[in-house]
Amino acid sequence: MAARRDGAPAHCQIGGARGEPCADPAEVKPADSWGDTVWGCLTHADETLVNARGAFLATEDGTGLAAYLTARRIRPDEAAVAG
User: What's 58's DSSP letter?
Assistant: First the structure.
């Protein structure tokens, strides 16, 4: 259900090592720092995370980069104290 929220496909997009398709459901979304993403089944996503340098699991929770950057912004009342 959570995977469907972002428009996940019905099946794994990663597939096997020789390019064979995978009929397992797409459950997680590996990504890299360049913004490339792919939906995969747990088995192929795990393989991707181990073998693709810089790959990580993309998530849609509120603790990502946007929340981090928002928390770092100086508020006007704090800037007067810091200056």
Answer: E
Give residue-wise pLDDT tens across range 39-63: 999 999 999 999 999 999 887 666 7
Q: How far apart are CA 8 and CA 66, in angstroms?
A: 22
State in Å, rounded, how far the first CA of the chain is from the last one: 48
Report CA-CA distances (Å) from 25 to 3, 13, 16, 28.
10, 9, 14, 9
* Total domains present in the chain: 1
Pairing assessment for the beta strands 29-31 and 56-58 based on DSSP bridges = antiparallel
Tokens standing for residue 38: 């792919």
Range of the domain at 37: 3-82
